[in-house]
Fold this protein.
Amino acid sequence: MTPALVDTHVHLYADAYDADRDAVVARARAAGVAQMILPAVDLASVDDVLALCDRHVGVFGMAGLHPTYLGDAPEEAAERIGPLLQDRHIIAVGETGLDYYWSREHEERQRASLAAHARLAAAHRLPLSLHNRDKKDSDDASRDLVAILREVKAEAGDALTGVFHCFGGPTWLAHEVLDLGFFVGLGGTLTFKNAGVPDAIADVPLDRIVLETDGPYLAPTPHRGSRNEPAYVALVAQTLARVRGLTVGEVAEATTANARRLFGLPDS
């Protein structure tokens, strides 16, 4: 029997699941997904996350402000994240980070928000879930993100940890992630033929990898282009097993142990 899986990053509250959300959860259970972690993107989504944590066993949440939502967020939004971290369902801070892909109009605010989230995570000893996206042939966001984390790490030490979700490089970034004591989160892009993710994680040991879907986005092959859902984390595990020359059971056992250690999840 294959060990249980953990989807460490799925937007289960998204509108894409409104018609069949309970069925999505049931399919995840049938696929061996024992636990799911839901990142927030803004203040309203934190309420949605908490409602789903109350509704479903094995569902846990994060509180945070996604960088692409900051332009519409009130100036005091970041100050309202701290109190939300007291809720028993909140086990991480996020999703936060930097996104220079769509626009750099709010990049100063993005950097300030990331630093504030990182300090909150360290103060509450909760892991940080990081979004990181650049335009093609640029690594400005990656370099700024690492610089900010290093600054906070210098203050907080081992109290700051977390995961670079939807990791895809650039190649040099994996070494920085490991040096910071962070994990890499692998999802559907690992299965994409020309995305280069296997090369980007070539030097990342298995004990620093967690699995995710980022559903409803970035569905893995053979579902690419359709709605993603947490059951598909099993396809990510299968691909990682093939890339590493391991059994699916070995990948599931290791990545689930990693997720439970990083996020402080119960064993079942």
